[in-house]
UniProtKB/TrEMBL annotation:
Superkingdom to which the source organism belongs: Bacteria
Family statement drawn from the similarity comment of this UniProt entry: Belongs to the 4HPPD family.
One biological process term in Gene Ontology: L-tyrosine catabolic process
VOC domain segment(s): 2-117, 131-282
Name of this chain's protein: VOC family protein
Single GO MF descriptor: 4-hydroxyphenylpyruvate dioxygenase activity
Amino acid sequence: MTLASVASVSVSGPSWSRDFLRTLQAPASDVERVGSHAWLRVEPSRVAAPRADEIVVNDVMFGVEDVDVAHRRAVRAGAADLAPPHWGVLPTPHGERPVRMARVGGIGHVTHTFVERDPAAGDAAFDGAQGLDHLALCLPCHTMDATVARYEAGFGLHVTQTEHIQTRSLGMINTVLQNASGSVKLVLSAPTPTSQTTQLHRFVDVHGGAGIQHLALRVPALLAHSLALERHEVNFAGSMPEMFDAMLARIGHCPVPRDAALALGIMADRDADGLLLQSFLAPSRTAEPVFFFELIERQGARGFGAANIRALFEAVERVQGAPVVAAEPQRQPATV
């Protein structure tokens, strides 16, 4: 058994979050929609929110072929049994539908719901998150191996890439988990034991443990989508000029004009399969947000912008006057 798809993501947040998510998914009539409103849902949180003014991911719903098999496998691998297989109702873009479902524990307070796909009714109702590129999970130090093992054994995912980035004062480990088709992608990140405080540490401190740090939404045209969001007063974190220049020296060309890229925080990366454009925005009104959305445009690339992570570390280390020692990513045999 393996996960077949991400059916939906449930979040909770302040009163403005519902309108923000609607804008994020369809910012303007001249920009192609990222996905159906049904897949990214705002619901009451099952636990106390770590911050009243920030969006929190509560549950990720996975489409599976057999709920009983999926539930049994996850529980045997150590996942908490929160709701055994039962009949429930699934909201879809075409109305509510009765489905077999179950729920288990994931990481931190995040849960995972299984919904059984019905071939006779068509798969579209269970593939609502077509605009979701990947989910990024933030882990405490020393928990990467155990978490990877649990998702491999309990959810049928496999490692497609690992990366270790280490400088004199900063360090992180990234592991990418996917299903066989590549329709489910989890990017796990954890700080190294010797790393000074990073955004990963702040997330863990605020949430009291592991959680989903950002959702990456795939868009067909990142610049146009970002400009439309900007007209709706969505704020982007700008790029540092030295990072942008280093990126250009590394990949040779960026299709986004320099001024626009710097203002909207758009960065590019290239791998053997093509080009990647990405930017981040923080849907929070706190001074130091810990949850983000990523917008990503893939022009063939399969990676996740690892070179831009290294570039950020290098920029920080140049300010601190420390040399950089960043390992190249290690790719495992992939089936995608």
